[in-house]
Amino acid sequence: MKIDNIPIDLILKNMFAATGTVLKIFFLTILFSVPLGFLVALARRSRFKIISLPTRIYQLIFRGTPLMLQLFFFMYGPFYIFGKGFERFTACIVAFVINYAAYFGEIFRGGIAAIPKGQYEAAKVLGYSRLQTFMRIILPQVVKNVIPATGNEFMTLVKDTALAQVISVSEIFDVASKAGSKYFSAIPVMIAALFYLVMNTAVEFAFKLIEKKFDYYKI
Questions:
Q1: What is the percent of the chain with per-residue pLDDT over 90, rounded to a whole number?
Q2: Residue 163 in contact with residue 71, Cβ under 8 Å?
């Protein structure tokens, strides 16, 4: 199938193949950055400056500089520092994980801070240990608190995967931009936009279901 002599079927085939890369970046980033972000949140709340201060500096650096620059750093920095660098896809995942962990850490920290201190005191009176209090009472409420912000970050991540092309990791936007340049048309980019829209629609739907599941927690 062609539109204005543009092989749409070939472009779609290439984009579907590139979607696999996008999904790998997305799920690997989530798999590692969410638990790391939780640890970052706990470190930020630490009473010990030797833990909380470096964590704040880390968050400032990775939230305060563009992800694109961080991709370049993890692609080329290790080679100049250690004489050996990451493979391109690995550098991409490392950059995404460390970047998003900084954001998730702040989201989770805010969610924990929003829980009234009276709940900790009430749990102590009821004989709960600190671990039981956190896992059974605090954590479910924290999850409910952070669902909207976390969902927003997930949707941003889908779009940010387009930045992987700056270190030559081929994904949807890379395929679209190359096809657009080759055929002098904006159609491939418009098709790419539909791919991102479909993926983010699925993310939004998933978070609506999660939010509904936690409706019974009234804070």
A1: 59
A2: yes
Closest CA to 108 of 78, 146, 156, 56: 146
Confirm if 160 and 201 have CB atoms less than 8 A apart: no
| C-beta atoms surrounding 131 within 10 Å | 8
Q: What is the pLDDT of residues 57-109, one digit of tens each?
A: 999 999 999 999 999 999 999 888 887 888 999 999 999 999 999 999 999 99
Domains in the chain (CATH in brackets) are 2-213 (1.10.3720.10)
Question: By CB neighbour count within 10 A (0-12 exposed, 13-18 middle, 19+ buried), where does 162 fall?
Answer: middle
The DSSP code for 6 is: E
How high is the pLDDT of residue 63? 96
First vs last Cα of the chain: how many Å apart?
54
Residue 10 CB-half CA count within 13 A: 10
How does DSSP classify residue 63? H
Burial level of 146, CB count in 10 A (0-12/13-18/19+)? buried
Q: Is the dihedral of CA 144, 148, 152, 155 positive or negative?
A: positive
Residues 6+ positions from 4 with CB-CB distance below 8 Å = 183, 185, 187
pLDDT for the residue numbered 4: 59
Specify the pTM: 0.89
